[in-house]
Amino acid sequence: MQKSQEINVNVKETVEHSVAGNREFHFYVDELAADNSMPTYVGKADEKYTYEEMDDDFFEFLERKSHQDGIYVRLVFSMSVEKKGKTQFQLVYGGEEEYFEPDSFDDVLVFEFADFGVKIKDGKATFGASIDNGCGREVYFAEFGSSDGNREFLSLDNPLNRRVIEIMEEMIK
User: Fold this and answer.
1) Average pLDDT in the 68-97 region?
2) pLDDT of the residue at 47
3) Are 66 and 121 in contact (CB under 8 A)?
4) What is the DSSP string of 96-114?
5) What is the pTM of this model?
6) How far is CA 97 from CA 48, 49, 94, 134, in A?
7) Distance from the first to the final alpha carbon of the chain
């Protein structure tokens, strides 16, 4: 398992697959700044991001941004839930839903909700998550295995992250 892979990513097909017909498609994609922050998310984008539909202009914007500082595509949304007295993680992706229960919680950070995705820049896909740096003031991409956020949350030893990466590898087109 690798956290970064050189793959020929078809941005349009990957976004369409991840959105799976959801009308809130624009929440699935953010442009990235050079420091991996998400200016679109906090309303500080360098250009207006006002697309009403996934049309040619929207995909041209994403393709262009993927060759600048990159884009972040949310592929898996997760919430922790309690089922039958045990903590599980609900994973929602591409119109699918599954529940994941780790054998051990030693390397797992239990969170209320999170999103996991891929940074796409110049054909290189890097797996990670979006990190909120306090009250939504700054949201940024953090790579799995990095020290850019909580160690347990981003750890490659975390069985939840291993499952999420497997799902994301299948979702990239």
Assistant:
1) 93
2) 65
3) yes
4) EEEEE--S--TT----SEE
5) 0.88
6) 33, 29, 8, 28
7) 18
